[in-house]
Amino acid sequence: MTIEQVRSLYNAAPFKPFAIHLANGRQIPVKHREFMAISPSGRIIAVYQSDDTSDIIDLSVITDLKVENGEARKGHRQ
Q1: Rounded to whole angstroms, how far apart are CA atoms 54 and 49?
Q2: pTM of this structure
Q3: Whose C-alpha in 9, 69, 76, 77 is 20 to 30 A from the C-alpha of 57?
Q4: What pLDDT band is residue 77 in, cutting at 50, 70 and 90?
């Protein structure tokens, strides 16, 4: 997965909620653009949830991105 693939969903207009799929099988929902932050290097992503919990994700463990309508953006791990 590349940071450009993540940014393309983050910057989509209009924004569509999507899920980040991880190598360990977890899925992290991104419900709103404002709930996600990308580090300056692009390697680390923070996703916050409505209940004030958060996930810190290393780009290298992201295996797939799926928008709410089912569109998948598969990537290859670097």
Answers
A1: 6
A2: 0.85
A3: 69
A4: very low
The two three-digit tokens of residue 40, written as one number: 């300056």
Beta-bridge partner residues of 66: 19, 72
Q: Are 21 and 66 in contact (CB under 8 A)?
A: yes
**What is the CB-side half-sphere exposure of residue 63 using CA atoms within 13 A?**
7
- Cα dihedral sign for 22, 69, 42, 51? negative
List, in order of start, the domains of the chain with CATH numbers: 3-74 (2.30.30.100)
Separation CA 59–CA 77 (nearest Å): 9
Q: Determine the Cα angle at 68 with ends 40 and 26, to 5°.
A: 65
Rg (CA), the chain: 11
